[in-house]
Amino acid sequence: MTKDDFLADLARLRTELAELDASDDETRARIIGIIDALERKLEHPDDTEHDENLLDSVRGAVEHFEVSHPRATAIVNQIMMTLGNLGI
Q1: What is the pLDDT of residue 50?
Q2: Per residue in 29-41, pLDDT tens?
Q3: Neighbours of 65 (CB within 10 A)
Q4: How far is CA 31 from CA 46, 70, 87, in A?
Q5: Which has the higher per-residue pLDDT, 13 or 23?
Q6: Cβ(76)–Cβ(13) under 8 Å?
Q7: Average pLDDT of 20-32?
Q8: Sign of dihedral through CA atoms 45, 54, 81, 7?
Q9: Alpha helix locations (H) across 1-88?
Q10: What DSSP character marks residue 24?
């Protein structure tokens, strides 16, 4: 998995965010938080201080999205695999 693949997954996650029902504030907040955390990780890959929190956030998102947002779940699962490949 390359950085470009990872950026493509983030773009897909942003697309899912744009397609969310406007009243789904909790899901919107979770996705925005994950995108922000992932972008910080890309900007500072050597900063491992918050890696566990990042993983916890992504895992929590998978659990939250499983039933109501299957496409977001698939994207977040792909991101989890990428993080694992990056050693995070």
Answers
A1: 79
A2: 888 888 898 888 8
A3: 21
A4: 23, 13, 22
A5: 13
A6: yes
A7: 83
A8: negative
A9: 3-19, 25-43, 51-65, 70-85
A10: -
CA distances for 4 relative to 1, 7, 10, 34, 84, angstroms: 8, 5, 10, 18, 16
| pLDDT bucket at 5, cuts 50 / 70 / 90 | confident
What is the DSSP secondary structure assignment for residue 27, as one 8-state letter? H
What letter represents residue 23's amino acid?
S
Residue 85 to residue 88: CA distance in whole angstroms: 7
User: What's the N-to-C CA distance of the chain in angstroms?
Assistant: 13
Return d(Cα 36, Cα 25) in angstroms, integer: 16
Total length of the chain: 88
Domain ranges of the chain: 3-85
